[in-house]
Specification:
7-stranded mixed β-sheet, 394 residues, Aspartate Aminotransferase, domain 2, 14 helices, globular, 2 domains
Length: 394
């Protein structure tokens, strides 16, 4: 059957996508043009947030969130060890201290009980914020985290890179979309090629706070603003007479060039139009994997189909993970491991983190493997993956 390699993730580019990018490339703007705000407005509507700020990538989004929330050297922020390193690194970019809490072995998400124990064992005010991650596409119950955060005066950044279109049901039985801003101060998304919506590289920040939104816009572009109501230098200094001249701008804080281009946003807009279609396909693939491996003695951690799960990844825990990984590669199936626990990366070990600190995360890492999961994965290709996994375990 196999005619080409089967990766764990793959972008899906259509003729409509190509047309949208070509139109942007032949327009008057390659960057700082109208496609950026168009994409921001459409994405904010998609997740149900008031505001959205498009940036160069998901890591930039995390960094800007930490800056906007005024993370200072020495500030302690709690996050999960089972995530891409950027979720933690954004705190370090600002000189803050990352404190890891363990995961729930049933969901692989940040364990609220582990977070609560950390907070209860320190004087109030020790910690500044929490960064929960919608790992693999499964939505964190942010309502519960918000209640905990309010008790300890903490902010929340929701890392929703894996979960556009994901949701959880709140205590009232109402759907709460990932990134809608109802419980987190800020949320971030990534448009890397293997994500649900691809723009090559790119990221988005969503929020319901006008103040944070304005701060993010300024930080995204070198700390420069063009709102004359906020200028501090005089009209005379600016070179005007009756008002500030049109060219005038002020850099009032240290920002960055974290802008995204118009042609990337054109691609993102085109992809957003079929986001729900891709999401449904991911869920059908997940359901097929679940049915295929249900009750298998070699699968240790497969859960049932979860409502609201966006299925960026389909993760199973297995015996002889290395053997399976290498066997699948020999068969042209490029499964992946998500993730090496952040607290055991050499960079974070220097701060005293060691094996045994996060027992659930470390146990998970011993057997986790992510199977191919993307909308253009064909039924025939998925059958091949399933067949080869069964074959390996005899």
């Amino acid at each position: 059957m196999k005619t080409r390699a089967i990766p764990y993730g793959r972008q899906h580019i259509t003729e409509d996508d190509i047309k949208a990018v070509a139109e942007a490339l032949t327009s008057d703007y390659l960057t700082q043009g109208p496609k950026i705000s168009e994409f921001e407005e459409a994405f904010a509507h998609y997740v149900g947030a008031e505001y959205a700020v498009a940036v160069s990538n998901g890591t930039a989004a995390l960094h800007l969130c930490a800056l906007a929330l005024d993370v200072q050297p020495g500030d302690k922020v709690i996050t999960t060890p089972i995530t891409f390193a950027a979720s933690a690194n954004c705190v370090r970019y600002c000189g803050g201290e990352v404190v890891f809490a363990d995961i729930d072995p049933n969901t692989y998400l940040l364990d609220i009980n582990s977070v609560r124990a950390i907070l209860e064992n320190a004087p109030k005010g020790t910690y500044k914020g929490i960064i929960p991650v919608d790992f693999a596409g499964r939505a964190v119950n942010l309502e519960a985290f918000k209640e905990l955060a309010e008790a300890y005066d903490l902010w929340i950044i929701e890392d929703s890179c894996h979960a556009p279109g994901g949701y959880f049901m709140d205590s009232k039985g109402e759907r709460q979309n990932c990134g809608n801003g109802n419980f987190a101060d800020l949320a971030i998304f990534s448009f890397h090629p293997v994500k649900h919506i691809a723009s090559g590289e790119g990221g988005m920040i969503t929020t319901n706070s006008r103040e944070l939104y304005d701060t993010l816009l300024q930080l995204r572009t070198h700390g420069i603003l063009k709102d004359e109501s906020k200028f501090t230098n005089s009209i005379a200094f600016a070179g005007g007479e009756d008002g500030y001249p049109a060219w005038y701008m002020e850099m009032q804080q240290l920002g960055f060039n974290y802008r995204i281009t118009d042609f990337q946003c054109a691609l993102g807009l085109s992809q957003l139009k079929r986001a729900n279609q891709g999401l449904e396909r991911r869920r059908r693939i997940a359901e097929k994997y679940f049915k295929a491996f249900k009750g298998s003695p070699f699968i240790k951690g497969q859960s049932g189909i979860v409502a609201g799960h966006a299925y960026h990844l389909y993760v199973i825990e297995v015996e002889d993970r290395l053997g399976l990984y290498e066997y699948l590669r020999e068969q042209g199936i490029y499964a992946q491991i998500h993730y090496i626990p952040c607290h055991l990366m050499p960079y974070y070990r220097q701060f005293g983190w060691k094996e045994g600190d996060m027992p659930q995360a470390e146990k998970y890492y011993e057997g986790c493997i992510s199977l191919p999961m993307y909308p253009t994965l064909s039924d025939e290709e998925q059958d091949y993956v399933i067949e080869k996994i069964r074959s390996f375990y005899g």
